[in-house]
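Retro notes
What went well: the complex prediction finally ran end to end.
Inputs used:
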Amino acid sequence: MMERMDLKTEVRKMGKKAKDVSRLLAQLSTDAKNKALLEMGDDLKKNQAFLIEENRKDLTAGEKASLSPAMLDRLRMTPEVIQSMAKGLREIARLPDPVGEIVKMWRRPNGLTVGRMRIPIGVIGIIYESRPNVTADATGLCLKSGNAIILRGGSEAFHSNQAIVHLLQESLSKVGIPGEAVQIFSRIEREAIKEMLQLEEEIDLIIPRGGEELIRFVVAHSKIPVIKHYKGVCHIFIDETADQESALKICLNAKTQRPGVCNAMETLLVHEKIAGNFLPKIAEVLRKEGVELRGCLETRKILSGIKEAKEEDWYEEYLDLILSIRVVKGIEEAMKHIATFGSLHTEAILTSDYQNGQRFLREVNSSCVLINASTRFNDGFELGLGAEMGISTSKLHAFGPMGLEELTTTKFIVYGEGQTREL
Amino acid sequence: MMERMDLKTEVRKMGKKAKDVSRLLAQLSTDAKNKALLEMGDDLKKNQAFLIEENRKDLTAGEKASLSPAMLDRLRMTPEVIQSMAKGLREIARLPDPVGEIVKMWRRPNGLTVGRMRIPIGVIGIIYESRPNVTADATGLCLKSGNAIILRGGSEAFHSNQAIVHLLQESLSKVGIPGEAVQIFSRIEREAIKEMLQLEEEIDLIIPRGGEELIRFVVAHSKIPVIKHYKGVCHIFIDETADQESALKICLNAKTQRPGVCNAMETLLVHEKIAGNFLPKIAEVLRKEGVELRGCLETRKILSGIKEAKEEDWYEEYLDLILSIRVVKGIEEAMKHIATFGSLHTEAILTSDYQNGQRFLREVNSSCVLINASTRFNDGFELGLGAEMGISTSKLHAFGPMGLEELTTTKFIVYGEGQTREL
């Protein structure tokens, strides 16, 4: 009980500190923020040995705890990883400052001039797992957008994250910004997350980044708005008129270029009129890359010997070299399949038919809808946002990749000349 | 237990229906939606006698339950109230359709053309109290923005709300839109709200409109994103250089034109250099309108005999003819007071000093910040949004008045020519 009270007090104190400093961060000049970002990048590089040493503690613990080689790999901080963290911070410094931007301005009949001005959200809480580079990326994005950040990383990266935040805080102090602009939990129990999720008055937004189970836990316990990303069951529909050479390249790219990420293709939908011709070709290309195929009844008539795709396959985010394939009657059935089994993440149509392309773009309401391009482009950098805080598959506030703009909100500003309201 | 299971099933069924119909609503043409809105307005007027009869049942029950005269007044549907509901629907028909708007479009170095297109949010749940006109307003706004709506009105307006929704559903059917576009709870127990708030898969957004207690209940129980409005503790700061004649008019308007609404002034902050001169004048003007004044120590030295404003007064949303007054050293102390006691709703500075005006506008991060105008202008109609779904004082998705645009989100659309991703 005593323990629990201490935790509550400790977490609330972090929230209060973040809220206090957030007012100051909202007013920082672009120059001051950029100077801090460059300093942070330099200091990470200069302290490479320290970071690698602290990271080693996590790796040793991870080996003892028998983490998978893939997990250990994501955890590992090499000189290259540190270089790329520093480069990320420098790139954020180069992006335009969203704070203070006047998004729109108009004049009312009574002479009031009304506008909408971008302002920071305030305090952002990030709950994440594994990769320590998120610590620096998220801090850089929040600083540039004028927000205070509270981090709660995974226990497996405890020492690495503490070390990074320690350096970032020092860099901030050097340029005259309070270190409290970035805080990280030193307590890693789940109870600490629960307490954090109660701080409605102090924290304005929670962004969980991790597995579906973590995200469901956060949504279930949070009084604070959550921007979330459950999964990416991404589809490509090959229309009757698709350019088949191009379709082969796009499907190969979408499935195999990085199968473990959320914007990789999981289900291929093929128009029945070209299935007999196209499926053997795509099967050959994908099998060369080691992709396991699972098909509907029609698919299996054409590609004999492949596994059956069961109903649960259509819902599945494999994140692996596995692809489910379904033959459909046309765009109507393709869109119906996507509406039923999709996760609102990313869908593409490959077609030469103008009407079908436009219709798919208009009617499919996933966070990113593409014509004749790979699903892999649903990414903040690739779409031109300059940076990415994650991808949202919930429709509130942000839908799709979140860049700096999505870390702000707008307030109404009004220039008057003594106006009063009559009705 | 059986009862509880029935409720769960019933509520989930409503959610499923709304989700199904939302796909169709998202694709409706502007013409079809406007036709429905006009039909709805006409049908409400034609069925005035029926509405007044149903409303009478609520009024009778309300009288028996000893509702306050103010409550009964808000509940009452007169021919004028029905006319104005119909007029509201016609006005929504005249507003531009936000769905399908391309907010931005740009080209990437690899030739991809990327844009952001407005789409409906999906299914919106409204939980509200008292005034039956919200039933028609909210339905009109959701329909125009392509969203399905689920309503849960207060028990005191049960018959009125059921009658309105019945008519709205009939109007929809007449023009070929499924009546499920608008649904209303026939069960009014709080348990029904709790069940509704679990429907993460079916409902995309909850907007509670009512007292602070209701809103806290919704936030505490919801797995669905909530856009909320706790209270409006609105400030006016009279700077040393304010035009005092204009300041008297603005303060009178902000405090007394409609004291019971959220954008009325609750606290007046006055620069110490003009307090001796300005306070007696404003006190005279406000006392004539029956406003009770409560002041800080300095204020009470100037306005002898007024009550003391205690610390809790600075936090208070009176919603009544009461005003707390504080003398401050200048803009710095005024902004500090607002940051400490404000509710992020609406704040105004009255000044002739350019720098102070700009600084207040930039540094005060409430949903609406004004120079030389009444706080009463923080309203969707007055700011030019054309209509209003309520005012948000939380920063996510919408901050300030919510119009049709705020009932949409944007998806990324991509026109490609066979592009694949390399890194």
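What we learned: Chain B touches chain A through 70 residues (CB under 8 Å).
What to try next: split runs per interface for comparison.
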